[in-house]
Amino acid sequence: MVSIASLYAKPLSQSLLPAKRAQSRFRREQNISRVRITMLKQQNQGIWNSADGTSEPLFLGIDFGTSGARYALVDKQGAIHSEGKTTYPLQVGTVTNRASSWMEALFHLLGDIPTMYRPSISSISIDGTSATTLIVDRNNGEVLAGPFMYDESFADALPAVESIAPANHAVCSGSSTLCKLVSWWNSSSRRSTTTSSGDSAVVLMHQSDWLLSLLHGQYGVSDYNNALKVGYDPEIDSYPGWLLSQPYAHMLPSVRAPGVPVGSIKEDLRTQLGFSKDCVVCTGTTDSIAAFLAARTTEPGKAVTSLGSTLAVKLVSDVRVDDARFGVYSHRLDDMWLVGGASNTGGAVLRQLFSDDQLVALSEEIDPSVPSPLDYYPLPKKGERFPVSDPNMMPRLQPRPESDAAYLHGILESIARIEADGYRLLRELGASAVEEVFTAGGGAQNDKWTGIRRRVLGVPVRKAEQTEAAYGAALLALKGATKITQKTT
């Protein structure tokens, strides 16, 4: 059995639109796409055998984020050979056009991969936003309802969900996948969207599940990272009894581990794109898990803090920790757990107060070895979720000193304290103690802030070498191809 840890250890050095049609529509809409090809000839001498390709197998990961999609193509050492990105086309009319825009983005990116690489692609995996779901006809993949987006809340279903789920379960949130499913199941629109075969032909699929199904043709296959918020229990590797007893249980997708081969790429797509006849499509994961995997750290005590608009922490732990009061839940990572939480503090507050140029200039005046006496709780607006759960908490950004540099120092240090409190809370809830932190997001570029965080956290802090979710998805594809290789040998 191939473990994620072994693969991510740092190395030594509706109807389906045909691909061509989707690509042409993209070009007519003049969406911007960028492709960067990295030959890495000096690092990979001996890879190239001819001018029209490479003999070394390559692994494709595609990330579907909130505003666009990108791909990364890597070899078995993790070196990037090609990468590209695209924005989604404008969405006009009903929300089901979101699904069409994802589909077009998928085929556009596949068409952007240089032809010289395509015959060497051995496996593909895709990540998507967590709890973004669709109701699909399992016979043909037609979208019957949704997409229901990751940040949409279905409070109408929350009482029903809380009545069947254990207290503080990950599904006990209005934005959980299960709340979306229950809301749709109880709605009057369900009767108008069911198939000719009735409810039995309807299945719930996550964003990445559905996109992957466009490649392998099997509907209703998911992974245990995506399925967590619909109620799947990765510890027992099955749906719990309280969920299977519900009348909509037949809509739940089958669940496999992330990065497990599902099937070969559909023959018509394979020939059209020029991919290898042995190319397989693997299960995916969520975008946040893929971004964590990109950092290639899977030992207990290792963590990744993402400093973007918000502050999110993920910690590898020997122990599973779940507590919906603080938005804390654990994803399975082979035989370990990835425990995470997210605060509303972060870069959004900084952008409310300083320009990018000011942040750069003022940071230069900060001595990270000297603690700031200022005690703030920087929030962009009312409400906090982790490590304090208080929807009524107000931002605390006063008093403001005369020096802008001192003010910035106080804010950066206060955010670092919140980060430390987050890891401390995870420890109090039973997770492994943090031993080293890798940093992703825009905040990773600020060396002075890194110095402050290193002092406040009391552990080594450094920038992650890879932070793109597409890179993590490519490593999942590598995992799937490795499973096949081990099985055949």
UniProtKB/TrEMBL annotation:
Cofactors that this protein relies on: a divalent metal cation
A Pfam family it matches: FGGY_C
Top-level EC class as recorded in UniProt: transferase
Tagged with keyword Transferase: yes
Entry's Gene Ontology molecular function annotations: ATP binding; D-ribulokinase activity; D-xylulokinase activity
Catalytic activity, reaction form: D-ribulose + ATP = D-ribulose 5-phosphate + ADP + H(+)
Family affiliation: Belongs to the FGGY kinase family.
Record's protein name: D-ribulose kinase
Organism: Zizania palustris
